[in-house]
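Run GTP cyclohydrolase-2 through structure prediction, thanks.
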Amino acid sequence: MTLTPLPVATVRTQVDLPLRRSDGHRTLARATTFDGLVDGAEHLALVLGRADRATPPLVRLHSECLTGDLFGSQRCDCGPQLDEAVRRITRAGGYLLYLRQEGRGIGLYAKLDAYTLQDTGLDTYDANLALGYAADGRTYAAAAQMLHALGVVEVDLLTNNPDKAAQLEAHGIRVRQRVPTAVHVSHANVHYLAAKARRGGHDLLYP
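Sure, done. The structure for GTP cyclohydrolase-2 is below.
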């Protein structure tokens, strides 16, 4: 595997945040910001639980989803995945990286435009393509920088998406194992999940 070198990022600020998630789970997170991230975005790392230094920490790369994470939209599975990640990482000890790449990298307004196309029958990937964007434009170089800045070089990655693991490995973060997330199905997202499995290569036992 060819490693892609990255500029060095540094920790900018760390501050404690007491959290209460929508599922009622409460925990204390250590919010960390960074200088020098390659895309210039304001990504955030939350340190959760107490990581055992003898084993790789549990890490989730979670792409921002305002509609799902904040408003509880059932068109996707992002909100439940975020709740699950906070609970599981708090138990195991590790890091939640909250990445500012809404709509698989196309932005909030464009994502809502894509929803209107999905309502005419396009799947989530074809809707992005119809708007002139990549089917999935997310990159995880900044996530790798954040982990390096935190002194993390090997992780257990909480994801069903093999592309996340491949991109981290390409930037020098060893992925010891991929830990699957649950499949959060609602009446409104079943076709979305099917597309993620069929088009995005996600490892989902989709109903």
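The beta strands are 10-20, 26-35, 44-48, 58-63, 94-99, 154-158, 174-179.
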